[in-house]
Amino acid sequence: MSCNKQSNVTFKYQDNDDLFSCESVNMDLIKEAKYAFEDYIEKHYSFQNPKSVDQGYFYYWEISKSPTIPAVEFVNPHVLKIRDELKKIKNLWHFNGDIASLNYAHPLVKCLGANMVNQELKNTFNTLIDTKTFKERVFLALLKRDPTAIRKDVGLSTYLALDTFYARILTLDFTNLEELQQINANRYFEKQKKEMGEELKNVTKDNLIPIDSLEKYR
User: Fold this and answer.
1) β-bridge mates for residue 95, sequence order
2) How does pLDDT run across 140-151, given as a tens digit for each residue?
3) Which residues neighbour 24 within 8 Å (Cβ) at sequence distance 6 or greater?
4) 3-class SS at 34?
5) Is 35 exposed, middle or buried (0-12, 13-18, 19+ CB in 10 A)?
6) Taken in order 87, 93, 94, 100, is the CA torsion positive or negative?
7) DSSP code at position 9
8) What Cα–Cα distance (Å) separates residue 130 from each residue in 27, 82, 109?
9) Per-residue pLDDT tens for 51-84?
């Protein structure tokens, strides 16, 4: 099931269903990362009771397709320990300044593609990887808002956990949450500016209604 590599993380989700085999990494850690992510979105991206992972995916869909970082105020110490262990995996990440993404040449990424269920997404993912032209925004443009299908697609949901959650918090300094929330406000502003073009030509961050990292999704 996994490589025999030591981790400093106490596993909480090992009774959950296994993911898939991939000899290049410690799959116990990847499994922990995936289910910790789903626990996070269930608790903090479900806005109606009863909370559920599916509801979490429904709202996190917006985050995954945008440049914003997840709601940093709710990232718990266990997730940060997982993040720190993931960061140690050799060659798993690509860094462009403070921005991280998966290294799409890493063998784990091949495993993700091989284990996607949605054939359209799987074919696109594998083609982009094989041609070395993968861009997150291109692939995620095809992602439909179908939370149950996303949850059941183990390759896809694990990809989302790694590349749209852990990658986005990989380099963040969690000792200053206000600064991290301001990063989201700035990215939201720039996204709106690009989408609205001339209508926002003379708008500045100072005359936009302030938002926190979750409020606009409620």
Assistant:
1) 100
2) 888 899 999 999
3) 3, 106, 107, 108, 111
4) helix
5) buried
6) negative
7) S
8) 23, 29, 11
9) 999 999 999 998 888 878 888 889 999 999 999 9
For the chain, give every domain's residue range: 27-174
Query: In terms of pTM, does the model score above 0.70?
Result: yes
Residue whose C-alpha is closest to residue 58's, from 46, 67, 49, 70 = 46
CA–CA distance, 108 with 121 (Å, rounded to integer): 17
Spatial distance between the Cα atoms of 153 and 120, rounded to a whole number of angstroms: 12
According to DSSP, residue 166 is labeled I
What are phi and psi for residue 94, nearest 5 degrees? -115, 135
Residues 177/73, Cβ–Cβ less than 8 Å = yes
CA distance 101 to 84: 15
- Rounded alpha-carbon distances, angstroms, from residue 13 to 16, 27, 35: 5, 12, 7
188 pLDDT tier (thresholds 50, 70, 90): low
- Which tokens belong to 2? 């996994």
Q: Are 32 and 9 in contact (CB under 8 A)?
A: yes
Query: Rounded distance, CA 152 to CA 156, Å?
Result: 9
* Surface-to-core class of residue 32, CB atoms within 10 Å of its CB (0-12 exposed, 13-18 middle, 19+ buried): buried
CA distances in angstroms from 174 to 70, 91, 116, 170, 208, listed in the order given: 12, 24, 32, 10, 26
